[in-house]
Amino acid sequence: MRALRDRIAYEREEGERLAPWAVRSAASRGRVHEESEHPYRTAFQRDRDRIVHSRAFRRLEYKTQVFVYHEGDHLRNRLTHTLEASQIARTIARALRLNEELAEAIVLAHDLGHTPFGHAGERVLSELMREHGDFDHNRQSLRIVDWLEDRYPDFRGLNLSHETREGILKHGCHWEHPVPVPEPTAQPCLEAQVADRADEIAYTNHDLDDGLRSGLLTLEDLEGVPLWKETLASVRGRAASRPAVWRAQTIIALINRLSTDLLECTAARLEAAVPRDVDAVRATPERFVGFGEELAAAFVALKRHLRETLYEHPQVREKNAQAEPVIGDLFRAYVSGARALPDHVRARFAEDGQMRAIADYVAGMTDRFAQSEHAALREGR
Ligand code: MG
Questions:
Q1: pLDDT of residue 173
Q2: pLDDT at 65 over 80
Q3: 285-341 pLDDT tens trace
Q4: In this predicted structure, what is the pLDDT of residue 68?
Q5: Fewer CB atoms near the end CB (10 Å): N or C, the chain?
Q6: How far is the CA of 203 from the centre of ligand 1 (A)?
Q7: Do 270 and 19 contact (CB within 8 A), yes or no?
Q8: 197: CA distance to ligand 1 center in Å?
Q9: How far is the CA of 199 from the centre of ligand 1 (A)?
Q10: Cα–ligand 1 centroid distance for 35 (angstroms)
């Protein structure tokens, strides 16, 4: 046996291991700027590593998911959300004989474009950019990997593979973008479909966990949600006197149940339709990756409960309302010149336009950096 497994050997194994409808690294549609392949890493392993080593990825640690930054050190932020979602995606992709590294790369990049303060920040920024080409977090994720990261001598951005960018883009592109964008198809590849569902499984479950931990969600309220109630009943007896344990066990069982249902129902659909290859998947009007009907309905009810009780909770809304002026005041102060911009932002006015360069700068901020900039602005520092 040879001790070394190089990229060619790994690609050959992919050919045997993956389903015909999976994306094969060796068959990637390639990168915008041509590069020679790495001796030991496939195209998607390389994409994944470029994302993990990016500046935008590190900033995820200090960006809000639902709760405004550091209300508690145990609560999730965008980095921990991203890691949880990517592990779920890997499990599902592997079990479905899909390209695990592609699914992983897409999930690791999927939240890069989020503004500080979650959706509250995004709402303000899209309002401010309405007359200047608009703002959207999916588009911003692609903008970061295609344009804003600056690490290579021969091109801007990370020059990721077509398939990873296709997965990041999500809903097609109807705006100006500095490099050619993947052609929209009826559906993205299966690895991108897995990434979307893994994101949903991850955030629903960790929001339940964080919601209960923070006291914004209560067990009494959740009693009215059948999916929660059933799952809780299935685990409670094993640790009845230890609420922290049965609560954790309920979340574990729920992630497991959702992931298992998703991969079994998806496998059944694929086996029935037998798409010839990934292009056949892209041309199929309906997504293959999805839950069974019964669980899908129960999951919708659980998500509705979270929206009504947690995301719309007065305390969460109040925090969001406090975050809005931070983005608005900073943006306006940079535009008017009341607050000085760093040289690297001003240097981009000529190429990207003043408004876009400022939007990129503000969107890229972490919650705590935006807060400290805002405090400095108010105090005239
Ligand atoms: Mg997400």
A1: 63
A2: no
A3: 999 999 999 999 999 999 999 999 999 999 888 888 888 999 999 999 999 999 999
A4: 56
A5: N
A6: 7
A7: yes
A8: 10
A9: 5
A10: 30
pTM over 0.90: yes
Q: Is 277 left (phi over 0), alpha (psi -120 to 50) or beta?
A: beta
* Residues paired with 245 in a beta bridge: none
User: Span 41-315: which CATH code?
Assistant: 1.10.3210.10
> Scanning the structure block, which residue is given the tokens 């929001």?
207
For residues 361 and 300, give the distance between their C-alpha atoms in angstroms, rounded to a whole number. 36
- Rounded CA-CA distance 128/133 in Å is 10
**How far, in Å, is the centroid of ligand 1 from the Cα of 83?**
10
Structural tokens at position 67? 């709760």
pLDDT of residue 226: 97
Average pLDDT, integer, range 2-19: 96
Q: How is residue 331 written in tokens?
A: 């943006």
DSSP 311: I
Find, among 138, 139, 157, 155, the residue nearest to 147 by Cα. 157
DSSP reduced 3-state for 41: coil
Q: Please, which residues have CB within 8 angstroms of residue 193's CB and are 6 or more apart in sequence?
A: 187, 287, 288, 289
Cα of 78 to ligand 1 centre, how many Å?
A: 7
**Hunting for tokens 């592997």 — which residue is that?**
94
Give the distance (Å) from ligand 1 centre to CA of residue 110: 6
Residue 119: the pLDDT is 87
Segments making up each domain of the chain, as ranges: 41-315
In terms of Cα–Cα distance, which of 228, 207, 168 is closest to 80? 207
pLDDT given for residue 172 in this prediction = 64
